Amino acid sequence: MLDLKFIRENPERVREGLKAKNAAGKLDELLKLDVEWRARTAKVDDLRSKRNAANDEISRLIKEKQDPKATIASMKTIAGEIDALEPELKTLEERMQAILLFIPNLPHPSIPVGGPDKNRVARSWGEKRAFDFKPLEHIAIAEKWDLIDFKRATKISGSNFLLYKKTGALLERALINFMLDLHIREHGYVEVFPPVLVNPASMTGTGQLPKMKDDMYYLGEDDLYLIPTAEVPVTNIYRDEVLDEAQLPICHTAYSPCFRREAGSYGKDTRGLMRVHQFNKVELVKFVRPETSYDELEKLVANAEKVFQLLKIPYRVLELASGDISFAAAKCYDIEVYAPGLDKWLEASSCSNFEDFQARRANIRFKGKDMKKPAFVHTLNGSGVATPRTVAAILETYQRPDGGVDIPEVLWPYTNGMRTIGD
């Protein structure tokens, strides 16, 4: 959430940021309500001051054995005015809050302005494999070796769900354990294993609600949401808390299944592992001091890149343009892996700096010994990484002419000694 004081003092900057993100935002209405709210607040404050003065005067008159009736009557009149104005103030505050919740974070000045066509490649790693045969797509490989049963998954749950089987299930589990161990042992993250059902306050804190409500799975009877990513419960670990500055940075990693309705995916590629309603992901979440957050973002991206380097899968890092970053992000990098069967770059990780946008919504602050009052932390998160498109890239990159697949060497310790699929 943006700071109302910042919006009030920088309306044109906010307007430019909204335009860069292709977001409407009821900025003019918010500013008008803010003027009205401040006027009423000033009036209420003045009336409260007068009421306090009248109360002191009554005490003095009683002490001096003088008649306080006129002053008491005056104080009652003032109290009545306050009682009449306070509901109006509350209504104005609620209306402003409702608008603020729909205003996105402002894009960082360093990122390109525009839509996806303005995304730029920050760097690339690895060489695309040269094949002496026509590489198969991951769907054909998965069906050939009975790794993923798409049809039965549809029977069980509906379209765009997955049923991993046999070596496919083993490969999925191996990836998750490999990534967790990497981030814990080499990158210094502390593992947590969060709930996958969260309350509305948690979803609001990270920015999924109210803006993206239609993309979430909701359990109305319990007023709970299935998480779209572990970012939501992990970030909310510290909601409404003041952290000791000495604790920062706090770095957590978490595995979780992720659930997304993909309500806006009409017309997009939903075949195979491209876009599914439930998938697995290892998440990276950081809570940092504001002045270090962009250095921490670069480290976060490097941590996610290491996964693909060890898997020896070619990838590229995209710096996303203003119109392609998420509602809550100020800056975002996507990591795309190359899938030779599809001959496409597939997004497998997204790493964002939210600055204090989420922390302000979730009320996560920190305080140091030299600070007069607590300040909001900066939060970051990144996929470290999501498994579906990573599995697709592994199957397509490591396939052999006979349709079998070599398992990446870094996963051998996690596959019970299995090194190939299809032998």
Description:
With 423 residues, the chain is α+β, with helices and mostly antiparallel strands. It has 2 domains: 4-100, Serine-tRNA synthetase, tRNA binding domain (Helix Hairpins), CATH 1.10.287.40; 116-421, BirA Bifunctional Protein, domain 2 (2-Layer Sandwich), CATH 3.30.930.10. The chain is 39% helix and 20% strand. It has 12 helices and 16 strands. The protein has helices spanning 4-9, 11-20, 27-63, 69-100, 138-144, 150-156, 166-186, 200-206, 231-235, 293-311, 357-362, 388-397, and strands spanning 120-125, 190-191, 197-198, 218-219, 224-226, 241-244, 250-259, 278-288, 315-319, 331-339, 344-353, 364-367, 375-376, 378-386, 405-406, 420-421. The chain has an 8-stranded mixed β-sheet. A 3-stranded antiparallel β-sheet has the order 3-5-4. β4 and β5 form a beta hairpin. α3 runs antiparallel to α4 and α5 (138-144) crosses α12. The chain is elongated. The mean pLDDT is 95.
